[in-house]
Amino acid sequence: MEELNTQPVDLIAAKREGSAHSREELRHFVSGIASGLIPDYQAAAWLMAAYLNGLDSEETIALALAMRDSGSILEWSEGPGLSDKHSTGGVGDKISLILAPLAAEAGLRIPMISGRSLAHTGGTLDKLESIPGMSVDLELAEFVSLVETNRVAMCGQTPDLAPADRRLYSLRDATATVSSIPLICASILSKKLAEGTDSLVFDVKAGRGAFMKDTASARELAAGLTGIARSTGVNAVAMVTSMDRPLGLTVGNALEVREAIEVLRGSGPTDIRDLTLDLAAAMLASAGMSEAENGPSIEDLGEMLDNGRAYSRFVVMVESQGGDLEAFDALPTAAVRMELTSDRSGVWSGMDAGILGETVRMMGGGRYRMDQVIDPLVGWEQLLPCDTAVIPGEPLALLHASDNDSAAEAVRLLQSGIIWNEPAQPLIREVL
Ligand code: URA
After folding, report:
1. The domains spanning 8-54 and 83-327 adopt the same CATH topology
2. Is 191 among the residues known to form the active site?
3. What residues does each domain of the chain span?
4. Ligand 1, atom 7, residue with closest C-alpha
5. Number of other CB atoms surrounding residue 394 within 10 Å
6. What separation in Å is there between the alpha carbon of 151 and the centre of ligand 1?
7. Does 184 contact ligand 1 (Cβ within 6 A)?
8. In the predicted structure, residue 213 carries a pLDDT above the cut 60
9. 352 a catalytic residue
10. Domain 336-420 falls under CATH 3.40.50.150
11. Of 178, 245, 314, 387, which shows the fewest CB atoms inside 10 Å?
12. Fold of the domain spanning 83-327
């Protein structure tokens, strides 16, 4: 019989030497993480060994399941299919705000547990919180009840959902062990599987503003995410999508919510609309509601945006969580608005999403520490479509800032992020 390494020090040594752990060993380790019996220094040492020597697919699945089982797993009534979407993080990515009510309107139940801004990327919860009164800190029972009633709700990770991941994630953040594909897969899946959904859609970003800079590493992450989900009986599809430039014309929390509402009402930028429709169709297909299975077509989904049905579902969701959309409409604009202008002639191909995300974070639209308060009003509003010929002095974008100094600093930083003469590539790079 295989020897069971129950002491954390033995597991650390085994991983340091590159050996694989058994499922039971990982369960034991994760339960020590969740209960607090394993101290930070041993957890951190194991994380670094796992970061350096990797986890094979069996270990990654076992880690994800053990972390899922470290807390509550949501239970649902009989009813419409349950689905959720996860994006690996982008700039200007407000798709979840549109996709969740749209997919609910199309017939699914969407229990969406989302995250906050991470590094230079935005977070759905921070965007939602720019709506006055909106509560995203829900008890799990309340969250389940809202999904059962409205077919859609959005909240943050609660202390009782995958608590082992919560602890490991904060240790990873502090020990430079976040960017490991197996650790990322296990972390994301532990929470998504705890939602008890039938299907999952992953939007894996690749490019300048993504954590995965190239298609190959994004594909590896996408394959890991879909592989683990499928091996646990959850249908999954992943799209590798480009994050070289921001999505849509706005970056910044309230600005993005406003743009999402435009798309929910049938207008707004076409890149956001098209990617949302493709993700919604993929979500429905992975939940057994493709067009061929009598589900809605892409045109039907577009119609739900155009005729206001998806927006009505969004309003119900927001109001059920305390949000006041009239107060949102009445929000002031940021104190300072400053133009970013072109300093040369050429074809303006958009803004480097990584540099833009960092700049909006510097302006107060994101965080450097978890205890920082976000300024919902600051951000970026693109004035000119990408791939337009410009002359020097032409306004490209408007910066919304809290003061002149941060606006001027943003303009300075963004000059180096302007992309010139680069033909646009398709947004969807691969589907797995
Ligand atoms: N999001 C997560 O939930 N976990 C990771 O490891 C990375 C992104």
Report:
1. no
2. yes
3. 8-54, 83-327, 336-420
4. 184
5. 17
6. 25
7. yes
8. yes
9. no
10. no
11. 387
12. Pyrimidine Nucleoside Phosphorylase; Chain A, domain 2 (3.40.1030)
Predicted confidence at residue 4, as pLDDT, reads 62
Note if 172 is an active site residue: yes
Look up 219 and say whether it is catalytic.
Answer: no
CA trace torsion 95, 351, 185, 285 (10° rounding) = 40
Other Cβ atoms closer than 10 A to 76: 16
Is the CB of 187 inside a 6 Å radius of any atom of ligand 1? yes
Closest protein CA for atom 6 of ligand 1: 184
Task: Note the pLDDT tens digit of each residue in 167-212.
Answer: 998 899 888 998 899 999 999 999 999 999 999 999 999 999 998 9
Ligand 1 centroid to Cα of residue 176, in Å, is 13
> For tokens 């989900």, what's the residue?
229
Q: Where are the alpha helices (DSSP H) in 195-252?
A: 215-231
Other CB atoms within a 10 A radius of the CB of residue 36 amount to 11
Give the residue whose CA is nearest to atom 2 of ligand 1.
188
Of all protein residues, the one whose alpha carbon is nearest to atom 3 of ligand 1 is 188
Q: How far is the CA of 70 from the centre of ligand 1 (A)?
A: 17
Half-sphere exposure of 224 (CA within 13 A, CB side): 28
Torsion of CA 102, 105, 109, 110, to 10 degrees: 20
The answer, yes or no, to whether residue 120 has pLDDT greater than 90, is no
Question: Among 350, 419, 331, which residue's Cα sits nearest to residue 130?
Answer: 331
**Which superfamily does 8-54 belong to?**
Transferase, Pyrimidine Nucleoside Phosphorylase; Chain C (1.20.970.10)
Catalytic residue among 165, 244, 271, 352: 165
The reply to whether 165 belongs to the active site is yes
What are the b/e assignments for 260-271, b being 16+ CB within 10 Å?
bbbbbebebbeb
The length of the chain, given as a count of residues: 432
Residue 3 is predicted with a pLDDT of 58
pTM (two decimals): 0.95
